[in-house]
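The methods section describes the discrete structure representation at length, but only in general terms. The central task, working out the structure tokens from the amino acid sequence alone, is never made concrete. Nothing conveys this as quickly as seeing an actual entry. For illustration, here is how one protein appears when written out as sequence plus structure tokens:
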Amino acid sequence: MFVFSKKSILTILLLSYSILNAQAQTPKTDTTLAEIAPIEIKAHFNSQAMLDMTSSARVVSKKLLQAQSTSTILSAMNSTPGIRMEERSPGSYRLALRGSMIRSPFGVRNTKIYLDEIPFTDASGNTYLNIIDPVGIDNIQIIKGPDGSLYGPNTGGVVRIMPNGLTTQKNNDVSLLLAGGSYGMFQEQLNIEQQVNKKYNFSFSQAFLRSDGYRDQSGLNKKFFQTAHQWAYSPKGELKFLALYADLGYETPGGLTEAQYLENPRQARPAGGPFPSAADQKAAIYNKTSIAGITHSYQFNAQLKHVIALFGSYTDFKNPFVTNYETRKEKNFGLRTYLSYEENQSERFQWEMQLGAEGQKGWYAIKNYENNFGDKGALNYDDQLENLQHFYFYRVKAKIAQRLIAEGSIGLNLNNIDFEQKANNANPIKGDKHFKNSWMPRLGLSYLVLPEFAIRASISKGYSTPTISEVRSSNNQINRDLNPEDGVNYEAGLRYETKNRRIIADLAAYQYRMKNGIVRQLDAGGAEYFNNAGEIDQKGIEASVLTQIISPEQGLFVRSLIFSTNLTYQDYSFTKYLVDDKDYTGNQVTSIPKWMWANTLSFELPKQFEINLYHNHCSSIPLNDANSFYAKKYDLLQAKLAWTTAILKQRKVQFFVGADNLLDEKYSLGNDINAMGNRFYNAAPPRNYYAGLKLMM
């Protein structure tokens, strides 16, 4: 599984060395607040100032993505209020945006994710976030709160990953990174961005990552390739192309009971009862995914623009597990298109509108076998599923007297699943699951009280259909009784930015009353299934302050000092939740910590030395619906020291060293929720280190 030949590494290094001898710009090193918190976000079709936003939004910049370990986006994402990202073991990610991880044991739910204009979330609602490598990301744009009117079913929000080469900023950069660290970690990243001429630019990103993992049966091997091309073929027309391929394999050690976790947190799930151990069954996930898309935009005149994107993906997925061996062949194809009209002639009144549609079709062949110690045994299930998900949207926005922003949007979502299920010694079962068509409206206001101070409010409907993995879960049954989550979100907030952008503050408060919340359960055999929990009340407060205490133009010994603090409060409770004869009404929602607090501190010193510190506090987390087990609170501290120096004229090299979990906390980052036998805990590594170098052109 974890083979990467010396010849392959040598080929990459020789190729990289030849590229590094090409001429390019020298990157600047002094950091300003604008690099960490851009003044604009491309949230709804067009770039707009953050002060004009009627929703709570955040941009995770490239600078923030590189502040700690460059092998993962985890710490950068967790510095955003309202987001919790977990890593159960190397390569096994989960992401929750203003939502519970109660229905997302292995990935992303309630959240729609895009790669520029291309949906990364497939027709089934699934997102393979772990195939992405940070080397290919320019920035990540986050819109919090339901936005189904424009982006399809979601209750938590929308994440837009902007790949290198597809942003308005054009670079001529070439870099090669090599790093190693604790537990057999080795990392290599190559990135090329070139502005060939005024009309055409491209990027190529490649990465390799491997690790033995802290726990037994937790090795990782990942290969990643991405290329993006942008061609302005005329003053009015532009073509963009994006393609990526990932070959990801990671072992899954499984959850431990509290006694096992305290006795030996490094062990994989041991054998118990009728179940063999995770190591004996060679439990792992192998994912080979290709994604490609082409986007065409045409500006007919100063007011009217048309955008269309065609995209598709293919996934070859294998999952030997303790109880079975599952394979999946997944194909997706889709289209997103819209017309945009803008009228900006008057300073007193400006308006715009968009009308569009998005649709995806997915084909999924899922087979379940006996797992004979990592090999496929007898075939038990052979299922074919098709999913068609499409929605239509309209939005209008007005800016009045350069102070008041008012926008309204509405979307109509349609979703259905067809299936044919075959089991051993049984006649095939054919059927379908049609979800009720849903209207998804949103209204938002923002008012600029002062040139640097804005208040906002919005009301929107959240709507999230079950994914294929929830309708047809690992118990191999088609659950036709599972219904979409929905509810109404009420939100208010404010944003403050000083004129020189030395201080940026944002505050948001919301209440989302979810009906038919989807929760994960396990049957007596350890297979998962999902049901609707009734009603969940989600109340939250998110606050952040970002300040540049010292800026480069002050000429002090510390050239730059930037501090941010980000606080999340989540009061999530079951307001109506019955499972069989158990009543969990009033309990805290499983998997949700009430408090999360993230702080970052960045120093830039003479001679191009840079120090980045990161602190994350997480309060205790309920691990089951009964709230009888909790994961303990923890404080995570990370640090990275980097030194950049010039070599060979315009070339530069950066040496860096970093440490994770400096406080040596014993904690579980990514718990198994409602786990059979109370196997909740997936131990995170104790204090660990990494070091490397980055050549830059």
Notes: The chain has one domain: 6-696.
